[in-house]
Specification:
The complex is a heterodimer of chains A (about 260) and B (about 110). With about 260 residues, chain A is mainly alpha-helical. Chain A has helices at about 1-25, 40-50, 55-65, 65-95, 100-105, 115-140, 145-165, 165-175, 175-200, 220-255. The mean pLDDT of chain A is about 85. At the A-B interface, helix 1, helix 2, helix 3, helix 4 and helix 7 of A face helix 1, helix 2 and helix 3 of B.
Chain lengths: ~260, ~110
């Protein structure tokens, strides 16, 4: 009965949604016939105004920089929330649920050892992946990329170490204090660059750094700097989450190795 | 054909919501929320799309070449990364729920206990 009532409520809501959605679509142009104006204006002026060639990054870290700051702090708070929630569980796990842990140690629940091919391939990829991630972070103002994309790529490097089965190294990397410091410096750096704009330029997040030559790596002024700060924060945030989620399994597996 | 992406967006939204409404497992519910949210990506990107437009990146392409809207793309790319961490937060909550209530079925949850 409860489920049926919910289903009826859903169907009514879906019908109402369909009505409002169709009504809203009437005012939209057909797909492929974008009318602007903001995207067109930015596509024309951003390269001259900010000396960047990737307009998306310019929008993210300059024209819409304040919004991105807010989104970045959603990310920041989610990472902190996730770590805190899982940390509490970890302590419980140690005291009360010892039996569950022992059950998890049974041989059939152990992950199989990675094959030599997996191990060699993943470890060989770590280096190139880190370089690629740094490249994406650093060239956001020129080509597709920037702090968000590059940060996620960087965070997959420790995951490769995990896939290779090198659990001790994975724990060393992901539980390092520097990861937490990086997360804080990345989030704080964005705020600080904004404040520099307020002090030197009169408004928050104004692009006050030298804009450089269009098409070179040190172009874009604060866009490049904010991209770096974001890259640091995203990478550190994802690594923190990786550790928070995998820590319990890690402890059990490491104990199994001994 | 020109309205097809809008239909896909609506479908993703409704199917995600349907999954959430009928869900019997909170992990499933969280993933349905992610599906629902991806409808906004399809919708906004199709609003900003232009037939024959290039990517809004003018490296090697002269400024003034018709390009798609960079604003919606910027919105999407931050949102995809943020969504991933929000999903992680929700899954951490689900883990806590399993610990405390010993169930992942929304229907089996009793009233909130202190």
């Amino acid at each position: 009965m409860k489920r049926r009532g919910r289903m009826i409520f859903f169907l009514l809501s879906a019908a109402a949604f369909a009505g409002v959605y169709l009504w809203g679509l009437r005012g939209l142009p057909a797909v492929g016939h974008y009318r602007g104006p903001y995207g067109d204006v930015l596509n024309r002026v951003a390269t001259y105004e900010r000396h960047v060639t990737d307009i998306v990054t310019a929008v993210n870290f300059d024209y819409r920089g304040f919004d991105t700051l807010g989104e970045e702090f959603i990310l920041f708070m989610s990472v902190i929330g996730g770590s805190v929630l899982l940390r509490r569980q970890r302590e419980e796990e140690k005291s009360e649920h010892r039996d569950d842990n022992l059950a998890d140690e049974s041989p059939e629940r152990q992950a199989p050892e990675p094959s030599d091919a997996t191990r060699v391939l993943t470890l060989a990829l770590v280096g190139p992946l880190v370089v690629f991630g740094l490249y994406i972070v650093a060239h956001g103002q020129l080509t597709p990329g920037g702090g968000f994309q590059g940060g996620v790529i960087l965070a997959t490097a420790p995951l490769l170490v995990y896939l290779a089965g090198d659990l001790k190294k994975f724990k060393q990397i992901t539980s390092h204090t520097l990861v937490e410091v990086g997360e804080a410096v990345g989030a704080g750096g964005y705020l600080a660059i904004g404040l520099a704009g307020l002090i030197l330029g009169g408004s928050y997040l104004r692009n006050v750094a030298a804009l450089g030559t269009t098409g070179t790596i040190n172009s874009g002024g604060t866009i490049a700097l904010i991209s770096l700060a974001t890259g640091l924060e995203v990478a550190a945030g994802f690594v923190l989450l990786l550790y928070a989620f995998l820590e319990q399994t890690l402890e059990i597996q490491l104990r199994g190795e001994k | 054909m020109s309205f097809f992406p809008y239909v896909v967006a609506a479908w993703l939204f409704v199917i995600g919501l349907y999954g959430m409404v009928t869900s019997r497992n909170f992990v499933h519910l969280v993933i349905c929320l992610a599906v629902l949210q991806s409808s906004t990506y399809v919708l906004l990107l199709s609003i900003g799309y232009r037939v024959g437009g290039t990517a809004p990146i003018f490296a090697g392409v002269p400024v003034g070449t018709p390009a798609v809207d960079p604003v919606v793309q910027a919105l999407m790319l931050t949102d995809i990364v943020v969504e991933a961490t929000v999903v992680a937060l929700l899954l951490a909550l689900v883990l806590q729920l399993q610990k405390h209530a010993d169930t992942l079925d929304p229907d089996k949850l009793k009233a909130l206990e202190g």
